[in-house]
Amino acid sequence: RRVRLASRYHDALADSGLVLPFETAGAESCWHVYVVRSPERDELRRSLSEQGIDCLIHYPIPPHRQQAYAELGFAHDAFPIANRIHEEVLSLPIGPHLSEADQNRVVDAVLDAAKRAGAPV
Q1: How far is CA 74 from the centre of its chain?
Q2: What is the 3-state composition of the chain as percent helix, strand, coil, each rounded to the nearest 5?
Q3: Residues of the chain above pLDDT 90, percent
């Protein structure tokens, strides 16, 4: 079910301006989460929330800033790409509970928000 939902997201959001997740050659995702990236992540999340669509930031702290790595002494800005990605990631709803109608509502809301943000839709 998750694979079908991820495939539908891929197709529907291909021209949304979002950075979509992908599978590396030889790997198959179980699509536990469907994480997109947007420089306007907070605005997108707010827009979806206003429409009753829950989105999450599953991993709010980049790996190098996790407590588990504190003893390594990484500076806050040691990994600028990881920091940037951290500020852009958003998990869209996905799972066996999500109906196609609900997914269509998510897609429509994402495309509407992207259009308002000036992304090519």
Answers
A1: 26
A2: 45, 10, 45
A3: 88
Whether residue 49 is predicted with pLDDT greater than 60 in this model: the reply is yes
| Distance of alpha carbon 70 from the chain centroid | 26
The separation between CA 88 and the C-alpha centre of its own chain, rounded to angstroms, equals 8
Distance CA 100, CA 2 (A): 11
The whole-angstrom separation of Cα 106 and Cα 121 is: 15
Phi, psi torsion values for 73, nearest 5 degrees = 70, 30
Q: For residue 116, what are the contacts with CB-CB under 8 A and spacing of at least 6?
A: 47
Which residues in 1-121 belong to E strands, given as ranges?
A: 34-37, 89-92
Query: In terms of DSSP H, where are the helices of 52-117?
Result: 80-88, 100-116
Sign, Cα dihedral of 94, 103, 11, 56: negative
Q: Whole-prediction pTM value?
A: 0.88
Instruction: Kindly report, residue by residue over 23-34, the tens digit of the pLDDT.
Output: 999 999 999 999
